[in-house]
Design goal:
241 residues, alpha+beta, Porin, eight-stranded antiparallel beta barrel, two-stranded antiparallel ribbon, 2 helices
Length: 241
Amino acid sequence: MPREGIWASRLAGAMLVCLALLVAQPAMAQQKRTKFSDTIHVVQRKPVLQKGRFDLAPRFGMSLNDSIYRSFKVGTNANYHFTERFYVGGLFEWYNFGGVLGSPTTAYQDIATQTNTRADSAVLNWVGGLELGFAPIVGKFSLFNSAILYYDVSFTAGGIWTDSASIALPSAKGGPGGTVSISNRIFLNRWMAFNFEVRDNIYMATLKGLPDSTLTHAASASLGISLFLPTAFQYSDASDE
């Protein structure tokens, strides 16, 4: 074959290869776009919607920050969720169990033995109030690779009315105060969740030996359940998902 024919055949082959690559590139890009499009359509809906629902949360807890007197409490929160993130609610906590639950600690006894004096500490009888809540953190996790659980974390702040006394001054006295909390809910289904809460009730307490009331923090931790009403809900639009 003449040299010119060989070069012509080689040039024609190179042109065919280039043409094949040009044709294949759009098909590959289209295939990539199709795969990416498929992935962004797989969006899991939130398993629990809270907007427009009531949340009733009974709890049992104990004090955290008082080394002189150990308190226990039962209480409940009743919240209304006006959006998925915000809610308003009322709370009530009862601390006075007539000596059956709650008593001075061993530290109180040690002080009395070593110094021959009686320490005093504020003691809550009950607390009631209103608060605003905000749940900025939501998520899910796998439980032993057998179930996926949905959770949220919320913060609250509000005003309370306290009825309190002290170890040395058992006469009850009421007054206003404030409260803040952080809580975590782990949902078991569409209408029930476990919850854990850490709360600080802040109020003015009267103690023996002090001429004026003193600012007191009554921190506590509690466990309970959350019951949502109504128990069922419907997805209305994309914002609920």
